[in-house]
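call fold(seq) -> tokens
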Amino acid sequence: MSPSKKTAKKPAARKLATREEAATAVLETVPPSPTPVRAEPPARSQQQEGRYVYGIIESRAPVQFGKSSIGGVSEDVYTVHYADIAAVVSRSPVFIFDPTRDNALAHEHVIETVMKNYTIIPMAFGIVFRTDDDIREVLKSIYSSLKDVLKQMSGKLEFGLKVTWDRDRIIEELKREHDEIHRFHQELTRKHLQSTYFARMQLGRMIDKALAELAANYVRDIYDGLRAVCVASRDNKPIGDKMIMNAAFLIQKDREKEFDNAVNKVATKFGDRLNFKYTGPWPPYNFVNIRLKLERGGAG
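ret:
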């Protein structure tokens, strides 16, 4: 997978994503659990062996994908088959995996290895089954759905795009350049009303509304500039008050360069007003809902 960190404020040169970014991308797939997370695995003598599942591929023949260190133990990564589909797994104890950075990176490393030669339906972090036969039963039960998703995702990659701005700078610009806000701010200054609660509340509401409208316009322009070079997109919730866009894009593998160029073109349009960062390629975490059905079949 070799995820790349691409900074598009200037023409983007590919850089390796940090290990923290790779771990974060995996841990964002962790489903909420009502069961407390166990920080350490049980003693080896008390462990019940299970199968940690990384994802689903299309293959009739057994495949080996090297080693995984999930849970801090080196184990072979292999395939468990039903017909012409297979789960990519490694042996592991049956327990709730602590979503640590090391475990997330071990998960991501296997996904990266598989993606070099296969389309993979990625599983969320921490999915463990008790036996190979349990996995085969689940593959059998949702076989047609898995085949359909594998067909839809064939030859496609996911990229993440986060866009931020200097919120304080934008607010100061609004006070100077937005007619209504500028007039109201001048009136408050002239009448020395800055410290009154209601005046501050009214100005704050005006600024929040203007920020939301401005951000929506920017995001719409960005999507318009990228729509022609992606198969699909998903808008995720922005993180913090400086981020105005947190999106995932599904891209045809052979159009990756076009996507790079399109992101750079859009970034150039906004200059230093917005900061663009996009990462990838990733497996289609944001575009595969079938993983939730497989999770429900897992050992509990």
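The longest helix spans residues 197-226.
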